[in-house]
Amino acid sequence: MAMSVASSHMTALAKTLHPPVLEFPSPHSSVPFPPSPKLGCRITKNTPLLSSAADSVKWRVAVSFFAGFPAKKKDADVLKEELLDAIKPLDRGAEATPEEQEVVDQIARELEAMNKIKEPLKSQLLNGKWELLYTTSQSLLQTQRPKFLRPNGKIFQAINADTLRAQNIETWPFFNQATANLVPLNARRVAVKFDFFKIAGLIPIKNPGSGRGQLEITYLDNELRISRGNQGNLFILKMVDPSYRVPL
């Protein structure tokens, strides 16, 4: 009998030292996990499990709520600053890589989407002399030429919305000029017909209709103008003299 009692005590001690192993259901089974008492934890009425779950749900709802708000859009002044910073080191576009051209074009498109002047050809903001800051036009940049044969000085374009006249002005070293008539095609696109050229600032040449193209004004304010040509070229200009008028 003493052996039987000792055996019973040993069995009870073994159960105390080795709690039952948890059995997890198969991933394909619908049987839920065993209730938490089998984990050896004691759950009382004061255990804050439900409160923690509720807090977790509230936190997730809050995160989802704020994530639903779109990022704040940039205003036009911020975009103009970004655009000017992007084109500053590019020598009017002559030194731009394809990747840099893409960056400039993307910022320009964002700014164009915020254009408030829907009929720029009727706006007085268009009048005056504009300085070319950037373009993708090879006919202006002349990147196929040696650098000393390219336009190195400032390039201007003047527009009179009242008389529908335009003027391109190159400075050092060539001092070429060209004037053109503008024929409105809609409220923001014109056909450009050059009729007068001055070579080296000295030799005037009248040649009506010798140069033709189209120009669409896609962004306009009192400081900056963005235009796009019919061949896909981008032009970015800043206002330098609003009082200037193109000679008739």
UniProtKB/TrEMBL annotation:
UniProt cross-references to PANTHER family, sorted A to Z: PLASTID-LIPID-ASSOCIATED PROTEIN 4, CHLOROPLASTIC-RELATED
Residue ranges constituting the Plastid lipid-associated protein/fibrillin conserved domain according to the UniProt record: 79-238
Subcellular location: Plastid
Name of the protein in question: Plastid lipid-associated protein/fibrillin conserved domain-containing protein
Keyword terms: Plastid, Transit peptide
Native source organism of the sequence: Trapa natans
One cellular component (GO) term of this entry: plastid
Family according to the record: Belongs to the PAP/fibrillin family.
Xref: InterPro entries: PAP, PAP/fibrillin_dom
